[in-house]
Design brief:
The strands form 2 sheets. A 5-stranded antiparallel beta sheet has the order 4-3-2-1-10. A 5-stranded antiparallel beta sheet has the order 8-7-6-5-9. The chain has 3 helices and 10 strands, in the order αββββββββαβαβ. It has 2 domains: 34 residues; 117 residues, no CATH class. The protein is α+β, with helices and mostly antiparallel strands and 164 residues long. Helix content is 30%, strand content 36%. It is elongated, with a radius of gyration of 27 Å.
């Protein structure tokens, strides 16, 4: 007499539970992965500071697609038809100044081309834009002290979930 080994219904149920659990874990993983990508795409940072006497508030906000920061210019700093914000790629901040730097990068020479700086004097509540030459003459700050704007905003900024 030949006895065939057959699984009991309890063993079949255990195998079915394991398969459902594996599918559930896979579904949870893909859901987490999808929402992590979506939430990172829509999360932006902003950094708000004011001058020493709290006369003016300045807001730096990010654009995740370009990894730049932007600051709104004061009304008398731009001409009609020009964008009302200054693009910032690198930043330096101390107790007296907030300095943002914008430049174009030449990938053929691996060098940063002409730079423009926006300097916010926290003591005077003033905002000025300098060319690289003017900035180097007036301020003695080396380029090594500047950090990437997105790194700065992740450290000091507030995460927001809206697109500006």
């Amino acid at each position: 007499m030949i006895v065939l080994c057959s699984k009991t219904s309890n063993e079949k149920e255990e195998k079915l539970k394991k398969e459902y659990l594996q599918v559930f874990y896979l579904l949870v993983f893909f859901t987490y992965f999808f929402f992590a990508i979506i939430s990172n795409y829509f999360q932006h940072y902003e950094y708000v500071f004011s001058d020493v006497n709290n006369k003016k508030k300045y807001e730096i906000f990010s654009d995740i697609r370009t990894f730049y920061g932007y600051i709104d210019l004061e009304n008398d700093m731009y001409e009609e038809g020009q964008l009302a914000d200054f693009r910032i790629k690198e930043v330096y901040e101390d107790k007296n100044n907030f300095i943002g730097c914008d430049f174009e990068y030449n990938y053929e020479t691996n060098k940063k081309e002409e730079r423009y700086y926006i300097v916010i004097d926290k003591n005077k509540a003033s905002m000025k834009i300098f060319s690289e030459k003017e900035f180097k003459e007036k301020y003695n700050i080396s380029d090594d002290k500047f950090i990437n704007i997105y790194t700065f905003l992740k450290k000091k900024g507030t995460k927001i979930g809206r697109y500006r």
